[in-house]
Amino acid sequence: MAIKFLKQDQLPAFLGYLAEKARVVAPVKTDGVVQFEPWTAGKDVELDVLLAKQSPKEWVFPQTETYLKFQYSTVVPEQSDEGEDAAEGAVPHEMIEVESLNEAPTQVIFGLRPCDARGFVQMDQVFGGYGGFYFDPLYNARRAATTLLAVTCRDPRSTCFCAALDGGPAGTEGVDALFTQVDGGFTAEPLTEKGETALGFSGFADATDAQTSQADSVKSEAVTKVDAPFTLEGIRDNLHDNIEDKGWHDLCMRCISCGTCTYVCPSCYCFSINDELVEAKGERYRVWDNCFNPLYTEETSGHNPRAQKSNRFRNRFSHKFWYYPDKYDSLLCSGCGRCIMHCPTRIDIREVLQVMGSPRAAASGEPTEAEGKEA
Amino acid sequence: MSRQDHIREFAAKALADGRVDYFIGWKKGHNASEVIPAFVKDPADVEQLIWNPLCHHNLVTFIKRNMPDPVDAKIGLCVKGCDSRTLVSLLQEELVDKEKLYVVGVPCDGVVDRRKLEKEFADELVDVAFPEKGKVVVTTRKGETKEFAQAEVLLDACSHCRYPNAVYADDVAGPLETEPDREGTKPDWSDIADYENLSDDEKQATLEKVYSTCVRCFACIHVCPVCVCWDKCVNRSRQPELVAQKVGAKENLLFQMIHMFHVAGRCTSCGACDRACPVEIPLHLLHRKMNKEIYDMFGFEPGTKLDEKPVFQLFDLNDQFGD
User: Fold this and answer.
1) How far is A258 from chain B (nearest CA, A)?
2) How far, in Å, CA of B9 to CA of A184, rounded?
3) Which of A250-259, B176-185, B236-245: highest mean pLDDT?
């Protein structure tokens, strides 16, 4: 498929073209904070700040998603004098009316990064029925209606580590069309049919040889700016072997056990389900949850198998690099580094994997005194 | 001898003597623009401890309920003036055991707000240096360098600081900073004047807007040194479900109102919640307003005297209840 070129000043017109047929979501700076939000004419797309605070996950997997509405009522049938059978049917009875919701507007996410797009591909496994597990109609409807137009990371951050996870600043996994900033604008490569459709805007020109070769050098230079602080080889086995290692206690000392890392993450997907009932009307919604939340594992009996901070801390990394790969044949991390940037105490996932993803001395495997004590 | 040297010396001695199991201070983060809490167990590791105006973390967070590991650890820690007041709040309520603590007070002339620095650049910060007193030099990944006067990039909380020195400590890291005249002056609440001048409707609209971006990560709750319910937090309760788990402007406001009421009379405006919030919500707004009300009604400044009790734990017939 031919590579195209879009002049910088044509970007708003291009987004306007997309907005005629779809909701356009893009990184926008408000009061100094960059977040993905619906784009409307006049809003500047922020691409200089490499990563929005949160990944665009919210737009495919909303933090709060109401999917059922229900209403209780009491049905009082009309009284009839004819025969015993009819009298039985005339007993007032409870009734519940249920309405299911599954909102999946056509949308285009522009300005996400290759790691953000890869996060969706990783989540696709758990929601998409991989391995015979549950197929989630809510997620999949939104995902199918979404086009991802990613922008190459020209200047990766020091916290980026996509390269250690077989990704890269110009990675194409999950990307429908990849834009790369070059002199005067962007080159745009359609990678899927959806991408091809999105690039139907008349303001595109065919990229010149000079523009494509500049895009190539932007990409290859960007790759050299990403660190690979660890190798994946052996991490899964070592996390398994180190599950009782006291290193987990040392690493989590500064963890405050909040959920920031999971809520800025492009691939953390846990949620809880809640019913809210006001008088006879209610709704059922799902809302993001995270493995640092005490209720995440608390059992009805009151026992919590992850009673301590260190148990919860261990889960996040083991899930991403051990259990999830075991079950879904995919990592659950794309190396965006948001968890490092936004953690209140800068817990560093790279450090955790370097330490706990390596073989540990057997002697340190002694369970500590505090292990297993109820909090 | 610098404050940093004092801290290292105190830590090494306390660890070597067995007075503490570990010592909490600050150390360099993943690059020289970041500082993170440090947990030192071996006297040989005290060299990693640092002191500079980036040391914003209130380390009292790490001694509150469920944070120590093991649970009965003897802990040494550094406290700035503002941090020490939250420690006194915990001691007043007997929520921590003084006998298990070793407290090093670190006189402080103001903490730099790293987010203010971040906002000056699109690029990532990789170094924040303090070549001389009052001067801050910031370097980005692409090598851009800019100099700031420290006074211009301090945390907002520092502008109304009345306690530059720890109000409670076992040892002090070097000479004290100049104490302001607390007897002759009142706390400065000018930072919330704009909010106070709004009408009720405007206040409601402002609060809903401010909290609309909250993602309920609970960083503000967990980082708060005086917020101690931990796993039993009412905001998490689902049986009964008192606060909707749903994320929305009204629900988020209720969530934050509960935090405000539960720390009323114990919150010292240390600002830890503001700095932990990943979406940069000005959480201090409600807390500062509450602190002002408490000061005006009861003349009470939380966490300043060991022999006081938080104002809502006392009943005094002479209390004045507003107009």
Assistant:
1) 5
2) 57
3) A250-259
Q: Which amino acid is at A68?
A: L
Residue B317, pLDDT above cutoff 90: no
Give the number of other Cβ atoms within 10 Å of residue B235's Cβ.
17
Model confidence over A346-364: pLDDT tens digits? 999 999 999 999 999 754 4
Distance CA(B20)–CA(A24), nearest Å, equals 56
pLDDT of residue A363: 46
Which residue on chain B is closest to A289 by alpha carbon? B217
Query: Which chain B residue shows the shortest CA-CA distance from A258?
Result: B219
Q: What would the mean pLDDT of A8-23 be, rounded to a whole number?
A: 97
Nearest chain B residue to A369 by CA: give it: B70
Domain boundaries, chain A: 4-59+104-224, 235-267+291-364
Q: Is this complex's ipTM strictly greater than 0.90? A: yes
Tokens 């420690």, residue located: B87
Choose from B34, B77, B139, B222 for mutation: most chain A CBs within 10 A: B222
User: What is the structure's pLDDT at A362?
Assistant: 59
For residue A44, give Cα distances in angstroms to A205, A289, B259.
23, 32, 36
Report yes or no: B116 and B95 within 8 Å, Cβ to Cβ: no
Positive or negative, the CA dihedral B90, B92, B98, B103 is positive
Q: How far apart are CA B170 and CA B103, in angstroms?
A: 5
Name residues whose C-beta falls within 8 Å of residue B232's C-beta, 6 or more positions apart in sequence: none
Q: What is the pTM of this model?
A: 0.92
Please state whether beta strands B75-79 and B125-129 pair in parallel, antiparallel, or not at all (unpaired). Answer: unpaired
Which pLDDT score, from 0 to 100, does residue B269 have?
92
- Residues B62, B68: Cα–Cα separation, whole Å: 7
Structure tokens at B188: 């400065």
Q: Rounded distance, CA B290 to CA B265, Å? A: 8
pLDDT tens-place string over residues B99-123: 999 999 999 999 999 999 999 998 9
